[in-house]
Amino acid sequence: MSLVTLQDVTKFYGRQDVLNKVSLQVKAGDRIGLIGPNGAGKTTLLKIILGLTAPDSGQVHKAKGLRLGYLPQDILSFSGKTVLKLVMDTVEEVRAVERELQEIASELKNLAAKESPDKAALAALTNRQSHLLDLFETLGGYQLKAQAEKILKGLGFSESDFDRPIEELSGGWIMRAALARLLLAEPDLLLLDEPTNHLDMDSLLWLEDYLKTSPSALLLISHDRTFLNNLAHRVMEIDRAEVVAYTGNYDQYCKEKEKRLAIQTAAYANQQERIKQIERFIERNRVRKSSARQVQSRIKALEKMERIEAPVL
Q1: Strand, helix or coil for residue 271
Q2: How far is CA 294 from CA 200, 280, 284, 304, in A?
Q3: CA dihedral sign of residues 74, 79, 83, 84
Q4: Do 34 and 234 contact (CB within 8 A), yes or no?
Q5: Residues near 206 by Cβ (< 8 Å), separated by ≥ 6?
Q6: Partner residues linked to 218 by β-bridges
Q7: Which of 46, 43, 49 is nearest to 4 (CA)?
Q8: Tens of pLDDT along 289-310?
Q9: How far apart are CA 45 and CA 30, in angstroms?
């Protein structure tokens, strides 16, 4: 099943092409490593998929009802929530039930404090509370909390951190909480931009194992070669504004790219030699009337020749 398809997508800033007629497809179950030098357009590509940036030309097709999860490289800021509530906020239906349960608990407390509580109101609130508790269980609310706590612990949080206000955390720990929030939500496609930057080795290894079994498709930007090797089934490299796709992990990409470069280098050298031969013939015979037709023919051949780009080694 195709989740996202890009067709001839182009994006430029000023006169510089960041992406030039890029076509690619992300399918359910994909594990894709997105690589390229800094400034190549990796984050721009993610933002185009998310709809945060519009392409200058081309089309972006997304599956109906597609749920996307994005972890940017920038430090995020949240406020007014504890760590655990921030993580669980992403599952809105469960959170709505939980909020109403908190409101009912407060109303029941106020009613109980009165000398003559309204029995009908008390019964109605109690019945509603019972219904919401059943609904909370049906929606997996109790398991969800346990799963949220498991993810937080995997990313290095202790139980004492769960009720800490998010504002007390450093930028790196806020990023970890934001990552936990995404993992709990299990979107159809996870877009991760350098997710390991703020992780220690234990958390990094835990995240790697978690992502291996996650039902979400993955489009990952990372400079961590080992991380890419253990997760990516495909590699997409942004090279001079174009996306080149490779099958396999990062090591397999390196081997395949080396082969492609060798072929391109040989083809480029052969073409350059052919161009020099033609140019020498033109130079030697330019003033000879008997060779005028041949000279013109070779000049046109040079003009029509599709030039092979010099490989970037």
Answers
A1: helix
A2: 69, 13, 12, 15
A3: negative
A4: no
A5: 154, 155
A6: 31, 190
A7: 49
A8: 777 888 888 889 888 898 888 8
A9: 17
